[in-house]
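Let's practice the habit of predicting before peeking. Look at the sequence and jot down your guess about where helices and strands might fall. Then scroll down.
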Amino acid sequence: MRPGRGTPPVTVAVTFSGEMAADPVAAALRAQSRLRVLGREQAAWAEALLVVAHELDEETVKVMHDADRPPRGSGPQVVLVAERFGTERQLLRAVDHGLACVLPRSRAGLDRIVLALLRTRDGRTAPDPPASVVRAL
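Done guessing? Here is the structure:
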């Protein structure tokens, strides 16, 4: 289903791991009519969680884990924007906690991030996942 006029916006929470700042990203996403950005504390109720990180490491997996324990029973689909994507084990644990899409920071412009978040509603991922992630999985 392609988001259109009759489709409600995708609810999104934005968080970060490590020293990355998510506030500028959240501000840019708030301007998108097809998205409704929730506060970090509401991540459990979001349809999608955007995690901005330097790399997929234990701290990043913990961010996903914490969002995957909502009172409503199933956590948000996670879109990860990072420079590096961790070990196979970390990737698999991240998938267990809702990782649905990975975007390299070097190619993660606003349009690509928005597309990835919108596609989570349909259970689809963004095109061109990083080859290293595909090989690991």
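How did you do? The longest strand covers residues 10-17.
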